Structure formats: C-alpha cells, structure tokens
C-alpha cells in the first residue's frame, strides 16, 4: 500500500472550537497499522437496501495492507455489502481512534489471510481450505488519540 502524506482533517468551527488553533502533530501510519493488527473486534457499518444503517462487530485481520473479515454470505452484513460495498470500519476504542472508509469486495481467502485468522482467533480452518472473505480497499483513513486531540487528528486519502 502506498501511504499518502498525512493531512489535518477539516472540522467545522463550532462552539468556539477551531482545530486550526492547535498545532498539527500527525499520527504515523505505522501506529494505525499496529492498532489494526492488534485489535480483536472491528465494527462494520453497512447500509440496508432500504437505506437504514446496519452496524455489527466482527473478527478480522489486517494482512497484505488491507482489512479482511469473514461472515456468512447469507447474513445481513454480507447481503448489504454485496448490494452496496461502500462501508466504514471502526475499532472499538473512542480514546485511540482508527476509522477506515472504503469499498469491500468478496473473494476467496489467501493463505496469508487464513494463517492470520488461525493465529489470531485459533480458527480451525485448514491450509487447504479457502474461505470467502470481504476485503476493504481503503479510500480514506482517520486516526487520533483522545489524550492528544485535536493536535494529532490525522487523515490519509488513498
């Protein structure tokens, strides 16, 4: 993945708060990938065909510079993503924030993805099996820590 330069996100000047009043101290992409690799649970936001939102926690892995998760292709999340693959992935913490925006694609797992799932979650999948997984092509990422917000609020556009 070719990582673009970090940028300061735009935030509306409201209630007397202006992000431009703080020095910009961008997060490192390495910190983001470390959080993505270490996380146990990820929140996937999708949209139902009716337009209603749907959000669910899933197990996933950050492998080969991308986020991957497996789910039953007949489930709500899978059906939503097959109908509208644009999505958002968030980590659980509101204090150490990572948000990925992009587009999911369904395909068979690679050996590296499968090995990562097996190691992280003690999954029973054999190396010869393939598992359908959704992989996110990241279009935009946001990250910050509550302790250093808003100075370290950082955006990357891919």
List keywords for this structure.
158 residues; alpha+beta; 8-stranded antiparallel beta sheet; 3 helices; 8 strands; 36% strand
Distance between the termini: 9 Å
Low-confidence stretches: none
How much helicity do the residues have?
Answer: 10-25%
Cα shape:
globular
User: How would you classify the helix and strand content by structural class?
Assistant: alpha+beta
Give an overview in words.
The chain has 158 residues and is α+β, with helices and mostly antiparallel strands. The protein has helices at 29-38, 76-83, 111-121; strands spanning 42-47, 53-58, 60-63, 66-69, 86-91, 96-108, 132-145, 154-157. Strands 1, 2, 3, 4, 5, 6, 7 and 8 form an eight-stranded antiparallel sheet that branches. The longest helix has 11 residues, at 111-121. The mean pLDDT is 93.
Write the layout of secondary structure elements.
Blueprint: H1 29-38, E1 42-47, E2 53-58, E3 60-63, E4 66-69, H2 76-83, E5 86-91, E6 96-108, H3 111-121, E7 132-145, E8 154-157
Antiparallel strand pairs: 1-2, 1-5, 3-4, 4-7, 5-6, 6-7, 7-8
Could you provide a short overview of the structure?
By secondary structure, this protein is α+β, with helices and mostly antiparallel strands. 18% of the residues lie in helices and 36% in strands.
């Amino acid at each position: 993945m070719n990582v673009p330069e970090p940028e300061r996100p735009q935030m509306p000047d409201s209630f007397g708060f202006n992000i431009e009043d703080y020095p910009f101290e961008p997060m490192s992409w390495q910190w983001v990938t470390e959080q993505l690799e270490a996380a146990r649970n990820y929140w996937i936001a999708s949209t139902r065909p009716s337009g209603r939102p749907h959000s669910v926690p899933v197990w996933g892995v950050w492998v080969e510079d991308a986020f991957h998760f497996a789910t039953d292709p007949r489930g709500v999340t899978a059906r939503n993503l097959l109908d509208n693959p644009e999505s958002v992935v968030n980590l659980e913490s509101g204090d150490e924030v990572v948000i990925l925006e992009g587009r999911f694609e369904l395909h068979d797992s690679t050996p590296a993805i499968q090995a990562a799932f097996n190691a992280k979650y003690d999954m029973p999948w054999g190396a010869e099996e393939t598992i359908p997984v959704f992989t996110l092509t990241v279009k935009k990422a946001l990250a910050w820590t509550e302790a250093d917000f808003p100075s370290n609020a950082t955006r990357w556009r891919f």
